[in-house]
Each structure stands twice: as C-alpha cells, then as structure tokens.
Amino acid sequence: MISVLHLRKEIVDPPVALEVAGIEVRSICVPEYVPAWLALRERATADLSPRPRPWTDADFANEMLAKPWWRNDRTWLAIAAERAGSSPTRPSGSPVGAVTLALREGAERSVPVIHWLLVDPAWRRRGIGRLLVSHLERAAWNTGWRELQLETHAGWTAAVAFYHSIGYAPVRGRSPR
C-alpha cells in the first residue's frame, strides 16, 4: 500500500490571496515565533494517524532553517486578531495556522512544494488552510512558478480531501524528489 501521496496543481491564472476576517497573514520571525510554530505543529498533528514525532527547536533548525531553500518570507503564519481565539493557554497573537513554500530538487528541475501546512484544530473549517495556501500560491506565481506539488500521508484523509478540494491531483509518473 502506498503511504505517501504526491499531489500537484498547475496554476494557470494569477491566484488571489484570500482574506479571513480577524486573521492576519505574516511571514515568520525567527527565532521569536519558533516556539509558537512548534506548539502549533504539536496541536495540528495530535489527531493524525500515523502521528509525526514531536519536534524540538533543533528539529526546526535542521528541517527548515538549515535547508538551502528556506527563507523566512516563504513561511507564513495566520495570526488571530486580539481576543479572537485567545485563552490562557493560547494568548491572542499566537499562530492558528502556518505553511511553508519549499523547493525540492527533482530529476529535471527544482519543484516548489507546499511544506507543513498546519491549522490549529480549534480553527479548522474557517478558511485558514485556504487562506494560507492562497498566499503561498500567489508567492509562487509572483516568482514565476506555474506548478506546485506536495506530499501528504495517504492515511491523513482530511488533508487529502482538503487538497483535492482546492485543485490538487495525483502526480502521474513523477515525484518531487
């Protein structure tokens, strides 16, 4: 059984960066937002099966910051406005979603990919994922890329359904790696 799905989307028109009331999209500031990103990743993956292992600051540095493709202006955070979604454990201004635009070296070319799309479970089904992907697609378009790819686990059915709903389809005969 195939456990990793490779999906792609051809971008034929300039994407419109969406908006969600009460949510601001901004680039990550490192190191200030790394603990918040790690906490968001933990919340967003807690219900997945199989569940990714928890990450530390060192994992973030190795898996993101140390990569030649990583740039802080290609990792976006969805930040809830004051009072929206705040609680004692999740103060206002903390991320409720995140996504990174990464580059994978393919056999023939570099391929832009969606990397670690995360949405806090308390904020799902409010347009946060679509918001973040729209900003990522717009940035890809502005850079000259007309195709995006991603990998996700086949068992993460909600993620697979989400990606299909926004136009991503299986890659045929190619892999981003």
Give the total of beta strands: 7
Could you tell me the strand content as a percent range? 25-35%
Largest sheet: 7 strands, mixed
**Overall CATH class:** Alpha Beta
| Order of helix and strand elements from N to C terminus | EEHHEEEHEHE
Strand order of the largest sheet: 2-3-4-5-6-1-7
Regions with pLDDT < 50 over 5+ consecutive residues? 83-91
| Helical content band | 25-40%
Overall SS class: alpha+beta
**Count of separate structural domains:** 1
User: Based on the structure given, which CATH architecture is correct?
Assistant: 3-Layer(aba) Sandwich
Distance between the termini: 19 Å
Q: What would your notes on this structure say?
A:
This protein is an alpha+beta fold and 177 residues long. The chain has a single domain, classed as Aminopeptidase, CATH 3.40.630. The protein is built from 4 helices and 7 strands. The protein has a 7-stranded mixed sheet with strand order 2-3-4-5-6-1-7.
Q: In a nutshell, what does this entry contain?
A:
This protein has 177 residues and is an alpha+beta fold.
Please specify the SSE layout and strand pairing:
Elements: E1 4-10, E2 23-27, H1 34-45, H2 57-65, E3 75-80, E4 95-105, E5 110-119, H3 128-143, E6 147-153, H4 157-165, E7 169-170
Parallel strand pairs: 5-6
Antiparallel strand pairs: 1-6, 1-7, 2-3, 3-4, 4-5
